[in-house]
Design a protein that fits this description.
This protein is mainly beta. It is built from two helices and 18 strands.
Length: 293
């Protein structure tokens, strides 16, 4: 009898050490890399509130003004987050950001972004990294893509797919047009169309122009260019030849140009033929030659 009591006393500590909570095992999977330093105060807290739902592990949120994230577990997979907070997912993760008006932003795989405050003049959501994502927006709503480009749409889904370190693909799977303000251009992406956006070190956000810029387009419905200063503008086929005569600045096709006096540059849409090639082919045609039969 004494021996049995001694065995019981010895087994109790061992059994206590082996106890686990099967409802919370295994723990949350490793998450994405920590958010960049200094991002805690990048977006000021706003009055807007969203509901963040973990659809697949791992998923993390960080409240506005706080310095660290916390995971969303499957037994506590939702959290309310005010504008200024951050949402992130790791490899294999999936997290949904639901807005009161029905707007939905879904991160699929590795990605992170911040909830913006419309009352502060910010887009609804700001992407800082993304593997894949799905968007459903209402009319007039905007999200900021990686690099700063602004996307607006009326409906969804709009798919974002990272092609590599330097290219983000936007696919319009909705029934309405999507608009992307990218540097000095606004791209129109119709239903079932896609566009590949280079991710530039200098940023891809819309360029703010001085009011003294003159705005015109290359050809009919072509890309927009903005010019100020002392230059000659010489239409050439579907393009435009810009010749410098003095101090000036030209913003076109995603670049900003300043030429030396007397220098010139030929601008034409990427989807058109080089005007010089068209001119050469016309010169090579014998005017006396009859049309082919």
């Amino acid at each position: 009898m004494i021996m049995i009591r001694l065995l019981s006393l010895l087994l109790l500590p061992l059994l206590a050490g082996c106890w686990i909570d099967t409802q919370r095992h295994p723990g949350v999977m490793p998450g994405p890399a920590e958010l960049p330093p200094g991002t805690a105060d990048l977006f000021a807290p706003g009055p807007e509130e969203v509901l963040v739902t973990r659809l697949a592990d791992p998923a993390f949120v960080r409240r506005a003004g706080e310095g660290s994230s916390f995971p969303l577990y499957y037994y506590r997979k939702q959290a309310r987050l005010r504008a200024g907070g951050w949402v992130s997912a790791g490899a294999g993760g999936r997290v949904e950001v639901l807005y009161p008006q029905g707007t939905v932003v879904t991160l699929i795989g590795e990605g992170m972004g911040a909830v913006g405050s419309v009352s502060h003049g910010e887009p609804l959501f700001n992407f800082f990294d993304v593997d894949r994502a799905l968007l459903k927006l209402a009319e007039g709503e905007q999200v900021r893509l990686m690099g700063g480009a602004l996307l607006s749409a009326n409906g969804g889904p709009i798919a974002l797919e990272r092609q590599d370190d330097e290219v983000l693909r936007v696919i319009n799977r909705s029934l309405s047009t999507t608009w992307i303000a990218y540097r000095d251009e606004v791209f129109q992406v119709d239903p079932a169309e896609a566009v590949d956006l280079p991710i530039l070190e200098g940023g891809t956000g819309p360029l703010e122009e001085s009011p003294d810029f003159r705005s015109l387009r290359l050809g009919e419905g072509g890309p927009r260019i903005a010019v100020r200063g002392d230059v000659d503008l010489l239409p050439e086929g579907s393009g435009m030849r810009v010749r410098s005569r003095g101090p000036h600045e030209v913003v076109a096709l995603g670049v900003r140009l300043r030429l030396d006096p007397g220098d010139e540059v030929l601008l034409y849409p990427l989807d058109s033929t080089d005007p010089r090639e068209s001119a050469d082919s016309m010169d090579a045609t014998d005017p006396g030659e009859s049309e082919p039969r």
